[in-house]
């Protein structure tokens, strides 16, 4: 009887995790950049939608993040905070467009394989 219980416990411990696995590149942490601040990136923050799918862009201190959709959570970086094009550790490109006269925003996500998706805030 003890061996059956141990065998059952062993099977339960090796069951696959139902959550989607994050690729190693998605966990890339970029050093904090003090220029990532209210004035430079909060204009991109918010909830973006494409049909029923949503993503959220937010700033945490001196880092910019994206979360949701099939991406999970990723940190974004750019060569300069004045840029409206950012990237993550997996080579995904995020191209922001802001209207000149009011609220709203658009985001084009370009995957490394060239697949594009358009999002609206």
Concise synopsis of the structure shown:
The chain is mainly beta.
According to CATH, the fold-level topology is Lipocalin
Helices, by number, come to 2
Shape summary: globular
Q: What distance separates the N and C termini? A: 59 Å
Task: Please describe the topology of this protein.
Layout: H1 2-13, H2 38-41, E1 46-50, E2 53-60, E3 63-68, E4 72-76, E5 85-87, E6 93-97, E7 106-110, E8 116-120
Antiparallel strand pairs: 1-2, 2-3, 3-4, 5-6, 6-7, 7-8
Q: What report would you give on this structure?
A:
It is a single chain. It contains two helices and eight strands. By secondary structure, it is mainly beta. The chain has one domain (22-120): Lipocalin, CATH 2.40.128. The strands form two sheets. Strands 1-2-3-4 form a four-stranded antiparallel beta sheet, with no helix packed on it. A hairpin with a 5-residue loop joins strand 7 and strand 8. The chain starts with a helix and ends with a strand.
């Amino acid at each position: 009887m003890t061996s059956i219980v141990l065998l059952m416990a062993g099977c339960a411990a090796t069951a696959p995790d139902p959550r989607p696995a994050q690729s190693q590149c998605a966990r890339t942490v970029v050093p904090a950049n003090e220029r990532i601040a209210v004035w430079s990136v909060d204009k991109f923050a918010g909830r973006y939608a494409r049909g029923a799918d949503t993503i959220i862009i937010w700033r945490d201190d001196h880092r910019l993040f994206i979360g949701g959709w099939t991406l999970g959570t990723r940190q974004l970086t750019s060569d300069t905070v004045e840029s409206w094009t950012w990237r993550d550790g997996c080579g995904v490109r995020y191209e922001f467009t802001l209207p000149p006269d009011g609220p709203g925003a658009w985001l084009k996500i370009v995957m490394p394989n060239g697949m594009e998706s358009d999002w609206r805030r």
